[in-house]
Structure formats: C-alpha cells, structure tokens
Amino acid sequence: MPLIALASVKSSPGVTTAALALAAAWKTAPRRLLVEADPSGGDLGLWLGLPADSGLAGLAAMARHAYEADLPWRHARELAGGIHLVTAPAGAEQAAACVAALAAAGLPQQLAAGAEPALADCGRLYPGSPALAVAAAAAVTLLVVRPRVSELAHLEARIGGLEQAGLRLALVLVPDSRRPPAEDSYPADEIAAALGVPVQATLPSDPRAVEQLARRAGNPGPARRLALLREAAALAAALETATGHPPAVPVLPAGPAGRDEREVRVGDRG
User: Fold this and answer.
1) Under 8 Å between Cβ of 185 and 151
2) Where does residue 123 rank: exposed (0-12), middle (13-18), buried (19+ CB within 10 A)?
3) In this structure, are strands 83-86 and 77-78 parallel, antiparallel, or unpaired?
4) CA distance 91 to 70
5) Which of 5, 1, 243 has the alpha carbon at shortest distance from 120?
6) In what side-by-side order are the strands of the sheet with 3-8?
7) SS3 229
8) Phi-psi region at 99: left, alpha or beta (left = phi > 0; alpha = psi -120 to 50)
9) Are strands 83-86 and 118-124 parallel, antiparallel or unpaired?
C-alpha cells in the first residue's frame, strides 16, 4: 500500500482535517496508519482528547537504533474504526527534531514499502522543512489549497522547488473561507491547467462531519453518509487506483435483464 503525504504551502487550509477524514474513510484496509509529521507540532491528540504523550518522539528514539516492520504501529494509538495514530509533540522544536530524526533513519521509505496504507500529515512545507523528506518518499503529496488567487500565487511559486525535491504532486481543493478582502476563486480545471498539477479532489466544508470525527475519536460512524466523508472515500479509492493498488471489486448479483449499466468513474472531482 502507498504512503500518502498531505501538506500545504501557505496559511492553514485544513491539512489535518483532510488527513483525518481520508484515514477515517479509507474503506479497503482494516487498519490505516496516520502519522503526524508536522514540524510545527501536532494537533490531533488535542482535538481527539487523547492522553498527552507523543508516539512520534518514542518512534524517533527507537528508529535511530533499528527498524522493524511493526515499529510505527507499536508507537501508534489505536482509535475506533481502524485508524492507528502516531501523535506528534505539541512543541515545534521537539516535533521538528522528531521528524528530522525519522527522515534520517529512513522511516518514510519503510512506510512507503509497507503492506498497509500510511498517511503523513506534513503540515506546511516551508523551505527547508524536515517534512520534505517524508513527502519525497510518498507515492503522492496532496497539497491542500483554497482556490483563491493569493494562495494559488504562493503555490505556483513553490511548485518547481517541490518537484525538484522529488515530490509527486496533486491538489486537493477546499472551500474558500471568503475572509476579507474578497478575492477571485477559480474552478478546478483552470487551476490544474495553470499550475500543471492535477486536481485530485475537492473536499467540501462539512463542520458536522468534522465534529463527529473529533467526538468519536476518528470513527466516522453515521458521519460516513455526510459529504466530507463521502468525498474522502472517493479520494481514497482514486488514490489506490492511481498508485497501483485498486480496491477490490465486489461480486454483485446480476440485475434484471435489459438493465442500463453505467460506468462509474472516480477521478477529478473538482
């Protein structure tokens, strides 16, 4: 299964929310690893009301000595619904040191070669970020961005450098918050054409789904029917197909004779 990185290059468009939703909605694997690899510090432990410890710090300490295939899982906290979360320290200095140590130990490459899906929340990919090494090992780095002109301009200026660093990029669009001043927004096809980076998905604003994920510690439960989790599930299926791990096709009973069968495709949902 692939390593999928999620990140941004400017502001706070909702990378952590997107990572949690994607991990929660990934239907084809009994367990999924979600690693907070944000050098600015972790949020998910606080969001979910988990005990104040850091699996990332323990993982970094052990990875310096030897790596075993189940090492990240042993330092993850198992949540309801199959998510195994490696939380980062809240402090930026310690979190950045942990991410740098894990990158030096080759952990991102080991995750990329694993048999189960792993997602890394890399936070903001500022120049020199230790999380760049994590993202470079991923099958794809999903850059979360609002489709407003100021954020797209910052993104455009960074794309060349990110690709030179070895990142394989795709975009996830999230709703424009419309904070003042008002700015022009652009549709997905125009953004992809202008930046030369495909738009992999558009995730809707869904406060109810986010609240349910936080309240149920990452277990979507009935929230699977809500818009954010539906789109996240479609994104997970598209990523599996794009990275060479297509989801299993269920065997369904034949429908009535003469039924009009239509092809269902998952791809650019912008």
Assistant:
1) no
2) buried
3) antiparallel
4) 26
5) 5
6) 77-78, 83-86, 32-36, 118-124, 3-8, 140-145, 169-173, 199-202
7) helix
8) alpha
9) unpaired
**For the chain, what's the residue count?**
270
Neighbours of 181 (CB within 10 A): 5
Which amino acid, 80? A
- How far is 132 from 7, CA to CA, in rounded Å? 10
Q: Which two tokens stand for residue 225?
A: 């029917």
- Band of residue 244 on the pLDDT scale cut at 50, 70, 90: confident
Cα distance between residue 218 and residue 232, in whole Å: 13
Cβ–Cβ < 8 Å for 159, 197: yes
Query: When comparing pLDDT for 8 and 253, which is higher?
Result: 8
Tokens of 50: 């988990």
- Assess contact for 244 and 4: CB atoms under 8 A: no
- pTM for the model stands at 0.87
Q: Which long-range contacts (CB under 8 A, 24 or more apart) does 224-229 make?
A: 224/25, 228/21, 228/203, 228/204, 229/21, 229/24, 229/25
The residues near 213 (Cβ < 8 Å, ≥ 6 apart) are: 20, 21, 24, 219, 220, 223
> In this structure, how many other beta carbons lie within 10 angstroms of the beta carbon of residue 165?
15
Q: How far apart are CA 104 and CA 100, in angstroms?
A: 6
Q: Which residue(s) pair with 170 in the sheet? A: 142
End-to-end Cα separation, the chain, in angstroms? 25
Where residue 244 falls (left for φ over 0; alpha for ψ -120 to 50; beta otherwise) is: left
pLDDT band at 124 (very low <50, low <70, confident <90, very high): very high
Query: Could you tell me the two tokens for 262?
Result: 């239509």
The mean per-residue pLDDT over the stretch 172-176 comes to: 89
Residue entry with tokens 């986010």: 210
